[in-house]
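Fold this sequence, please.
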Amino acid sequence: MSRYTFAFQTSAWPSDRIEQAIEDSAESGFAGIEGDTFLVERFGDRTELLQERLRTCRLELTAVMGGGDWSIPEMREETIHRHVPIAAFLHTMGARHLVVSTGSRELVSDIRTDFKVMAEAINELAKCCLDYDLYTYFLPQRGDRVQSEEEIDRLLNLVDTNTVFFCPDTAHLQLMEADPARIIQIYGSCIQYVHVQDLSKEESETFCVLGEGCVDFKSVKIELDRLHYQGWLTAVAGEDSEPPDERAARSIRRLREIFCNEGES
């Protein structure tokens, strides 16, 4: 069996089609799904229903995506408070990962102060998450507060890396002109959850189907193998006109081609 376990992000479907996302992901062969705050809003008070649907489809909930303006001191308490129900939801569902985007790039004060404030807020959230037996991950993305290798390094030097981890997204790293394999090599000890996404060769800043863009997944796999990585690989569907069920089916095929050795599944 492959050491890699694959999940699919439900953002490929409209927010009112979560049930369809679950069914399509399972039918395609994924072992898990990653949701967003819409999933919590829809099933926050009906977790037993969601658990039953996931059990029926033999799926796990891997993570929920959150976010906020972590660099704004006045928003700190509100932003953390908004994530506590998400943490409780994840705990009830048996998931272990809360992934957060890092907010707007607009300066609040200055770079040094903004990053200090952001790190303190994410550290505080991470401590809250420990009460729910889960870890906090920050996700660098083009256009967010953290969007470069220098900024990844800056934040990792400010947070408590025993409780805060780094979720790389292969396409966003490529978009910020950082080699995904090299980033995984450098920060491997801080990586326990990975987004797998591809970036179009022809259309600038356009995400595409896995294996059809410019991300060097062969090198990414080499580095993950070197780390003996055994966490989730969560596929993020690119910007495509295909229906989400077809994107899911094509994504799982690509994941198996890229990350499974011959005879593995």
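The chain has ten helices and ten strands. The first helix runs from residue 18 to 28.
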